[in-house]
Amino acid sequence: MNKLLIPCVYLKNKTLIKGFSDNAVISDDPVSYCTSLAVNGADAILLFDLSDDDDEHEEALLTVRAITRATDTPVYGAGNIKRLEDVKKLLYAGCRKVALNMAKQTNIDLIEEAGKRFSKNKVYVCADSLEQILDNLKVIKENTSGAILLGKLFIEKFDEIPVVPLINDDFNIDILKKNCVYGITGDVINNRADDLYSMKDELERDGIDTSIGKTTVAWSDLKCDKDGLIPVICQDSVTSQVLMLAYMNREAYEKTVREGIMTYYSRSRKCLWRKGDTSGHYQYVKSLDSDCDSDALLAKVVQIGNACHTGAYSCFFNEIIRKEGGKTNPYTILEDVMKVILDRKENPKEGSYTNYLFDKGLDKILKKVGEEATEIVIAAKNPEPEESKYEIADFLYHVMVLMAVKGLTWDDVMEELANR
Asked: Is the pLDDT of residue 287 over 90?
């Protein structure tokens, strides 16, 4: 089992501060700071919302959403969870999991409700001591996927459940060898957050597996050109859209495998470049394959932002030949329609029904969504499927107009479906 390194960040007044009892600002740009954590080796980010009131909490949720959209690294939300609605809001903001603070009796009562409503795989608990966990062990095991221990760690008594210890600088490496521990967080990680890869190297030397990428395919197994380079086709892992073509040398290949973020060799600048270091548009590797002759690579990635330096999502947009017909990726169809809707929003077109809906506002759009949903129900009573097909298409169109108004994308919806 790979042991995870998880930095903690503390969000307050749109800034990141040092800790629970230390309001010293460490960054006034939480998104950039968390992105840097991700690309410097963080396996997840534990984010505590330390807001003082509901208005600040709502602002914090916007920051959380911006962070989760800027990186593929999981964000775990904690702090300011008082009711089930708060759990939902953090998950809807893009957090992969939430952590309930067991120092509050109300949260102990909330554990079972949250676990059943959102599945135990999306719920952690935080505790100040082992006693808090052991006193509620049954409900924790049945309704959460693990516990985060705040303070000094003693875990000999509960090897039965996984723990993410939040520990101090007196960290003992033997803790990580216990089966119940699947990662470490807190100051021992925060103090080295600018280069967690070196910490992973140290752990690997001590026989502890980490998330550092490994492969049985050495650079020498590949066939490069006379300049020591190999072409790499980069593809969106969800839509299969081709994003760009670039090249790797040995160092770029080994860095990509090790870090899981696409790194290339620039033939014009004659140096390595990790995609995103300048633009923030990182490419998180989901798979890397060679072709039948081992002289070209195919990378499937999660693309943050756009791949092309022109601002286009893909570098391949200059049409030469295009023929209509044939089956099309359903996800691509939805994305194409959404692009037209968003273009109508930004560049209104006279006579456009989409612009008519935007002009009428949210209430009109909601009314149409409701009407189309009802039409689906009516059409479904017909034994022939054709009418249902048309009504479902109408419904999806109006839902996409609603998504445009609410600032949602198909990526948001698909990610939520994938997490269920």
From this structure: yes
| Cβ-based burial of 296 (10 A; exposed 0-12, middle 13-18, buried ≥19) | middle
C-alpha pair distances (Å), 208 with each of 72, 182, 200, 233, 243: 24, 11, 9, 33, 36
Task: Give the separation between CA 254 and CA 78, rounded to whole angstroms.
Answer: 35
Residues 234/307, Cβ–Cβ less than 8 Å: yes
CATH 3.10.20.810 fits 219-303, yes or no: yes
Q: Which helix (H) or strand (E) holds 49?
A: strand 45-49
The CATH homologous superfamily of the domain defined by 4-205? Aldolase class I (3.20.20.70)
CB neighbourhood size of 116 (10 A) = 12
Domain boundaries, the chain: 4-205, 219-303, 330-418
β strands within 114-256, DSSP E: 123-127, 147-150, 163-167, 183-186, 230-236, 242-248
| Residues 400, 372: Cα–Cα separation, whole Å | 13
Question: Distance from CA of residue 122 to its chain's centroid?
Answer: 14
Superfamily name with CATH number, domain 330-418: MazG-like (1.10.287.1080)
Q: Which one, of 152, 61, 71, lies nearest residue 98 by Cα?
A: 61
Token look-up 């030469």 returns 320
Q: What are phi and psi of 249, to 5 degrees?
A: -105, -175
pLDDT value for 151: 47
**Residue 397 above 90 pLDDT?**
yes
Per-residue confidence at 165, pLDDT binned at 50, 70, 90? low
65: Cβ–Cβ under 8 A, 6 or more apart, which residues? 93, 94
Above 70 in pLDDT, residue 243? yes
Span 299-342, pLDDT tens digits:
999 999 999 999 999 999 998 987 766 556 676 788 889 999 99
Residue 142 · residue 123 · CB < 8 Å = no
Distance CA 243, CA 42 (A): 26
Determine which helix (DSSP H) or strand (DSSP E) holds 317, and give its type and residue range: none
